[in-house]
Structures are given as structure tokens and as C-alpha cells.
Amino acid sequence: xxDYVIGIDCSTTAAKAVVWNSQGEALSQARRAFGLSLxxxxxxxxxxxxxxxxxxxxxxxxxxxxDSSRIGALCITHQRESFVCLDEAGDPLRPAMLWLDxxxxxxxxxxxxxxxxxxxxxxxxxxxxxxxxxxxxxxEPETMARIGKVVDVHxxxxxxxxxQWLTSWASADPLGLVDMASLDYDDSLLEAVGLERxxxxxxxxxxxxxxxxxDRVAAQLGLPPGVTVVAGAGDGQCAQLGAGAxxxxxxxxxxxxxxxxxxxxxxxxxxxxxxxLSAAVPGAYTLETFIGGGTVNLNWFVEKLSGLDARxxxxxxxxxxxxxxxxxxxxxxxxxxxxxxxxxxxxxPYWDHNARGILLGLTGVHGKxxxxxxxxxxxxxxxxxxxxxxxxxxxxxxxxVVALGGGSRSPLWCQIIADVTQRSxxxxxxxxxxxxxxxxxxxxxxxxxxxxxxxxKAMSGIGVSYEPEPDQAASYDRLxxxxxxxxxxxxxxxxxxAEATQ
Length: 502
What we know:
By secondary structure, the protein is an alpha+beta fold. It has a domain at 4-236: 2-Layer Sandwich (Nucleotidyltransferase, domain 5), CATH 3.30.420.40. Helix 11 (295-306) packs antiparallel against helix 13 (368-391). The longest helix has 24 residues, at 368-391. The termini are far apart.
């Protein structure tokens, strides 16, 4: 009986493997971390071999504590936009370039046209691989001359599992090489970077069967021979699927280091208010917004400014829990303190790498609890701005937000988001929703469920929910009318500051 599947998430810092049953219950899981190199400011690189070694170890350990004979399929989700250049033998020519690498800003300014936006669904910014490939063509022509393959994380791992150069279009499209209307590579984009189709992994639908493990690979992973390998999708799209947010009126909200939110669309659309990706459901789309600073902003405050050591005070609490308790006693608006949360610049909808954070309205009454609450509220205000912008492309408004990620464990933050956005906020039942989305694709391909949609319905679930409180929502509505004018009023000042500090 093959009624178990494995979802694997190869993220920026670790690989995690989870064994799922047909109800979406985690039976076993394992994690293996790997390194990240930041050799220069704005650069982000990795050894692609670490992706495979970490995934193999995580799969092997997760399979050890279950009846592995019942595992019928596996599926991979992964960090998006990251890619590696390989030689003809399939070995890395240089370190992989990661999604967080921003070295290609000059290429964005030169090549980031409206036509490229229309084709790829991605507003001009340094994240997609296309701009980094243009950088390589200019700065490392010897690397480009020796390329046998350019592959995303998914394509690299699928080759190790099956021996075939295949990937899903929902894994490849964040690279910025895919025509989002046809879900095929765009020849003009390939020509611009000097690549041919044969140098890329062939595209398949997410949830399709790509092959099977042979005896050698299966033995290495501790799995039975012939396990089905299923096409996955990027981590954002799999998080959306794992959260069950694949119907109109629902948006997923991943409250992680950055804050990523996505709405589901049957039709292709593009705009500066969001970036468009292939959904994990074949043929559909995810309209995604992104705040670069999420819990990273909160961690900054805790580490740099809070001065809290709860354990030294004899409290079995984290600094965040202490601050949240204090912040919860304050009224909406933190007594007149607003935060523009652009610690890492502005992505959707402004795409301004010069943008910076602002504390607006500081007075002598404000203390640590005020600033912590204002940070939570500023991120909620920004999310309202982004969700409202994405709604313009949807056939129906967003009425429910499904939250996941570390920040979803904060009752105060979830209630603030509900009040600020004036939408219901539900927290996922399963914390590992990204891995669960990959598991859903595997379960559908294996026939455990009839379709990706029925797998999502059967395997996802909601825990606690938060509803907007009318009085607080009204207060936040007045504050939001101020917040949405803060960035436009300071756009030129940000540019002048950047120029003055070069």
C-alpha cells in the first residue's frame, strides 16, 4: 500500500523533509542546514552540491521512523529565483546565485522594460535570474561560454533523483525566462543572455510525474525502488497550496523573515502592485506581494534596541512575548507613532531599493512597547496597501487571509492584521504548510486524491481565527489614510539620501 508521500522544502538555509499521510498529518520530519555565503555587499551565493546533500540527508532521516514501504511519491518545493550554472557534465561552474543577490542593479536599470514585465509578470528588480545572467555575460563571459545547463534548485535536484533535466514551469518561472501567458520559455529573453532551450531543464506541469527513483538513488535515500518523483513548485506557491488558499476570496499570508502574500487567479494579469507566478495548480496563477522586512524587523528591534533578557529576570518567556504583552496594553496607533517598515527597501508596489524605514510621530511618551506595537502595525498597514492593490486584478475581493509562518503564532499581530485590513485572519493548522503543499502535489499524482484541488481540501485545515473588531478597525482606518501618504511624500528624499551617502 502506497499511501504516504514526502514533501521536501529546499529553502535558503536548510532542507526539510516531511512524511505525510492522506489526511495531511505529519508522520515524521527531519531537517538539515547548509551554508550561505555573502562574499560582498549585495551578493548571495551557495554551493549547489549542498542542496543535494542536505535534501538526501533530510529524506533519509525522515524515512527512518516510518514504514518506508508505504511511501509512494515525493515532491520538492524550494527557494525561488536561485540558480546554478553547470558544465556539460552537470557539475557547477561557479557558486549558485541566490534570490537575495542584488548585484545586477545596473542590468535592471538598463534592461528592465515594460515589455519584459509583460512577458514575465515580474516588475523590474534584481531578484529574477535573468538580470543576474546578464550580469554574468558582462562580468564573467568565461563562465557563460562554458555553460552546459542553467537550472533552478528544483531542476538541479530532479536531475539527481531521476537523471533527467526536467523542472516544473511553477519552479522555473521565477527565474524570469518564462512567458507567463504560454508557460513556455521566451526566445527573446533567452537570446538576450545567449542561451538556447537545450541548455535549460524542460518544463512540465506542477503535479505531473517526472520519473521514478532507480535502485541506486533509492538505496541512498533509504526508500523503496520506484518511488514516483512529482513536479513541484516554488516555496511561495506551495505555501499557498498547503494553506488551502486556492479559491477566490482567500489570500495566504506568510509572516516570515519577509512577508509574502498571494492571491489565486485563473487568468494571467500583471501590474506593479504584485508579481505574477504560476500557481501550484496547473494553468492558474498566483498574484504575489512581498514585504522584504517581516519578522526580521522585529528581530532587529529585539536584538539592537530592546535590551531585554527575560530569563535573567526569572521569566520563562522570550523577549518577543514580553514585548507583545506590553504592546497589547496600548491603544491602536501606539499613541501616535507610525512606522514605515522599509528596513530592506520597498518591493511591491514601489520597487524602490532606495526606500528606508521611518519612525513618524516620536514624542517623549513613547517607549519600547510603543515601538514594538508600531512595528507590528506598520507591517499590517503595508499589507493592507498590497492586498488592496492586488485585488484590482481579481474577480472577487479578498475576504479571508490565511496566515502561516512564525509571525502567525502572535495573537496580537494576527488581531492587528484583521483590524487593519478589515478581513478575517485564520491561522493554518499545520505549521509546515510549504512542505504540505509539496505533499499535496505528490498525493494527487499518486492517485491518493483525485486532483490537486481535492488534495488541498482533504489535507489542509485551519486552527484559530481572528475577526476585525469594529472600534479598532475604525481607528486603524483613520491612521491608514495617513500611512499610505508617508512613502509618496518621502520618495524623492530617499533618492537624495542615497545619492548623498554614496
